[in-house]
Amino acid sequence: MALTTSLLESHLKTTPPELRVLQMTKHFGSLVALQDVSLTLKPGTVHGLLGENGAGKSTLVKCIMGFYAPTAGQIWVDDQPHTIKSPKDAHAFGIGMVYQHFTSVPAMTVAENLVLSRYDHRQVIHWKTEYDALHAFMDDSPFRVDLDTPVAQLAAGQKQKLEILKQLYLKSRILILDEPTSVLTPDEADEVLGLLREEVQAGHLSVLLITHKFREVMAFTDEVTVLRKGHLAGHGSVADLTVADMAHMMLGEERQTKDMAKLAQADPVPMLEIHDLAAHKDNGLDAFGPLNLAIRSGEIVGIAGVSGNGQRELVEVLAGQRSATQGEIHVNGAPYGATRAEMTRLGVCALPEEPLRNACVPGMSVAENLALRNFDRPPHAKWSLWLVLKSIRSAAQGLIATFSVKTPSPETPIQNLSGGNVQRAVLARELSSPDIRLLIAANPCFGLDFSAVDFIHSAIVEARNRGVAVLLVSEDLDELLVLSDRILVLSEGQFTYDSPIETADVKDIGHRMAGH
Q1: Ranges 211-225, 320-334, 391-405, most confident
Q2: Which of 1-10, 298-307, 432-441 has the lowest mean pLDDT?
Q3: CA angle, corner 253, sides to 508 and 234, nearest 5?
Q4: Any bridge partners for residue 49, and if so which?
């Protein structure tokens, strides 16, 4: 009997715990990020967490990991409720998370990063002892990464393996993976998820996999939970679900669209043309391309896609913030290299994502930021040398009134404004250009309230009705369905769908967005 009990205890120690999330709710002021979401991660399984951007996936796992204190709800580990206030608390229950962005120290070696990841407070490290233990650990691990290599010298796939190895080194039995394949090639993604799947099947781990990709859910998970706009949209065994079922849960069926009073355009002409355009990500991997696209005057072309599929890099190339690796761009028939002079001459304006970081100088005043496009030209400057402050302030007052920018005064630093008012100010600056022909807008309404969204949508459509060509990149499918004349899907750096908005198929768009 004693031997049987001992074996049972040994088995229990190696079996991952069951994780249950019950009625999890998280409010940020009046914003409901998560409402009454429940999820069960069974021991020795891979559970997919699926949903569009903004569906609540990150909020849910941050509540599990103790980054957020939930407004309501409970976390149970092996049939016991627990309060988790920090990642250290989560670690105590065997829960570890691999984040979307790498957390290792680039200048340190793999061995040093593994030792650094521990929660202990040892003041002296005996490296011979550590290396003996690290070699033994690596021999039993699903991945192999050289212990003496500085992290900065590792390829992206090896860095991602190291992030997972850190959690295995910490003896985490439940792994939460946040988009673990977003920085990997398809072959690397299959290798990493396949090896983790083997660890799960051996009973060593349970995995909660946050993903947007139906292919990964179908190939590597046992069960799936789908969130939509902060609510539980559905769950079930992957064996019992089709891609169409999951797409329906993720995107919904009824899309509440509204008429935006679009005017017919007489004699539209090609305004933006890109030919065989390609660019790299920051890590040197291909971001997108080669791509071909044409947008006519008075047309809004919407690009749908899950974050990380090349949208950001495409916008940065068009806005002059990233170099293309190949291809050509023409605006109104003229070659375009995205210099400030060309943007001015050809009438190219941009409404980028995170405008306070990408389109403003935070410490400068609202008036000064409103003048960034034309501060060195009359009437704001004489002889391209002397600034006419009175003219800059007067123009700012007019734009503030026209675009309803709420600011104490034109001299207020723009960083003191709310996100919606920063966006209004940037929109005012860009759309007030008298020669605007092309507007590049990236997630223009992310995080804004309803009134700001309606205002920005109306301003974009009004520009389109004046003959402006609009490239609208958005992770909000409803926004694209409302505003676009034509919709494309960018998946893994390629356009995989192209349709006039009148005949667009939401289910097909969802499949293409998820890389299926």
Answers
A1: 320-334
A2: 1-10
A3: 100
A4: 210, 225
The total of other beta-carbon atoms located within 10 Å of residue 294's CB is 14
Domain 12-251 indexed as CATH 3.40.50.300: yes
What does the pLDDT look like over 201-248, one tens digit per residue?
Answer: 989 899 999 987 788 899 999 999 999 889 999 999 999 998 888 888
Residue 8 pLDDT class (50, 70, 90 cuts): very low
Structure tokens of 294? 């044409």
| DSSP states along 233-292 | EEEEEGGG--HHHHHHHHH-S--------PPP-SS--EEEEEEEEEEE-TTSSEEEEEEE
Cα 22 to Cα 74: distance, rounded to the nearest angstrom: 5
Residue 153 Cα distances to 106, 145, 169, 197, angstroms? 8, 12, 21, 27
* DSSP symbol at 170: T
Q: Rounded distance, CA 306 to CA 336, Å? A: 27
Rounded to two decimals, what is the model's pTM? Answer: 0.63
How far is it, in rounded angstroms, from Cα 165 to Cα 171?
Answer: 10
Give the three-state DSSP class for 472. Answer: strand
Same topology between domain 12-251 and domain 268-347+435-516:
yes
Structure tokens at 230: 């902060």
Cβ pair 391, 379 in contact under 8 A: yes
CB of 459 within 8 A of CB of 431? yes
Please state, in angstroms and as integers, the Cα–Cα distance from residue 110 to each residue in 96, 137, 163, 179, 336, following that order: 19, 13, 10, 22, 44
Q: Average pLDDT for residues 384-394, to the nearest whole number?
A: 81
Domain range 268-347+435-516, CATH class? alpha beta
Each residue of 114-126: pLDDT tens digit?
998 887 777 788 8
At position 459, the amino acid (one-letter code) is: A
At 305, the amino acid letter reads G
Bridging pattern class, strands 80-82 and 72-77:
antiparallel
Average pLDDT score over the chain: 86
* Domain boundaries of the chain, sorted by first residue: 12-251, 268-347+435-516, 354-434
Tell me the HSE value of 306 on the side-chain side, using a 13 A CA sphere.
24
> H or E element: which one contains 503?
none
**pLDDT by residue (tens digit) across 403-459?**
888 888 999 999 988 777 888 899 889 888 778 999 999 988 776 655 677 788 888
| Range list of β-strands (E), 372-468 | 381-382, 386-387, 438-442
